[in-house]
Amino acid sequence: MFLKMMKYRFAVSEFARYDRAGMVLCLLGLLFVAFGCLLISQDAAAADGRTKSVSPLDEKNPLSNLWSGFYYAKKETKAMQLDDFGNPGSFYVEEGAELWKKKVGAQGKSCASCHKDASVSMKEAGVRYPVYFAPLDRMINLEQRINLCRQDFQKEKKFEYETRELLALTAFVRAQSRGMPVRVKITGPAKPYYEKGKAFYYQRRGQLDMSCAHCHENNYGKSLRSNLLSQGHANGFPTYRLKWQKLGSLHRRFRGCNKQVRAKPYAYGSEAYVNLELYLNWRGSGLEVETPAVRN
Amino acid sequence: MRFRFLKSGSCGCVKTLSWQRSLVNGACFLVLVTFVILAFISTNALIAAETGSETEENGLVKFQIINLIHSKSIQHSLSGKPGNPKRGEALMVNRKKGNCIACHGLDVFAEKAKTKPNIYADMGEIGPSLNGIAGRYQEGELRLLLVDAKQIFPDTIMPAFYRIERFTRVDDPFLNKPILKPQEIEDILSFLMKQK
User: Fold this and answer.
1) Which residue numbers of A are catalytic?
2) Closest residue in chain A to residue B162, using alpha carbons only
3) pLDDT tens track for A49-86
4) Under an 8 A CB cutoff, do A206 and B99 touch?
5) Of A85, A119, B11, B114, which residue is least crowded by CB atoms under 10 Å?
6) In the prediction, which pLDDT does A65 show?
7) pLDDT digits (tens, 9 = 90+) for A159-176
8) CATH homologous superfamily for B65-192?
9) Domain assignment of residue A184, yes or no
């Protein structure tokens, strides 16, 4: 009825032509605005694992939706991570930047002497470690790569695990990959280590007789007393934990988890933990690197 | 002939009269019933024979798991004594002991959390609620669930609170020790049996 009336109006109106032109312009304008809105909304809802889940890169992943630990963190903790000035992990990254340039050893070499600008040379490092290292015939993680450089090229004593220097340098290097999706290689020589890491993940251990999967695969999103269980990803490490009041390595977290189920923890940098680190990074492949993340 | 023998009627009798056959059938049935009754009595006698808390070589008290078709259970008190529900409640909220509420919710505790949040708050949601648990399980089944829940649910996350074997890499302070003592199991059990 309304349309008929409109038709009639256009037919009889002497301004009909102008009206039509106006309408077309109006429609075009509306379309433009709508398209813009769509772009903006898509941007806001970009899958990052923090506000919207990410699909795993490997379809064999037992998790169909990946959620970063950020998603399960408390509101204030999230705010702390997002604010670069308020993120206590940022201080470590800055310290790491200083160490990157610091010349040490007999030959007076710094990391920058060989690797130059970390934002270029280290862009991928945080995404693909641990990697298979042929000379030692095993997997090495970032901490171990840094120490190998230190011993072999800088001719300096290695940093002990969990020292402020090693944490700072590791965080600085991994922070270069911030926002890039984790993507570790589990094929070729890495395959057997991946398998070992997987076996570790599903092995019940400790007096409480639980495997990683019991909490982080079967029960994520549920509360365990005062904590909300996450999917247990590695994408934010080294992480500033409020509980520690300090930046800490992934292996420190592993040791904490093991002790919580009353299992004997492995040593920092042990082969068992590096294999688990590889497996966890595979489970989280697709999630963005968040180093230095802030967690409860 | 042999083939015919196997094919013929009940109890393998050849060319039997109908009254003979029913007599044999009746006898068979009687023997079977007697056997079942005897078996039942002997099991009960076995349960009855076990009293108090004898200690095994490994340091744990002896207990017997009764495996029936529909339920598995431990019928007798591990300590030989009844439990104390008040003590049981304290053990359930103690993080270093039962810590049951890390995973299980219970309305009675939620009510108490309003006045004593530091003791009762933050109940977990991993395991099923304990509301009305005594109506869902018999005492013996609940005792076995506390002792070793994997006997009933093999894949469960729930720890075995009274077991010291078949573990991987138990940390030194906990090696060869069960999480709870026999009397502590009974105390928790007595509290749970009040949740009707």
Assistant:
1) 257
2) A207
3) 999 999 999 999 999 999 999 999 999 999 999 998 89
4) no
5) A85
6) 96
7) 999 999 999 999 999 999
8) Cytochrome c-like domain (1.10.760.10)
9) yes
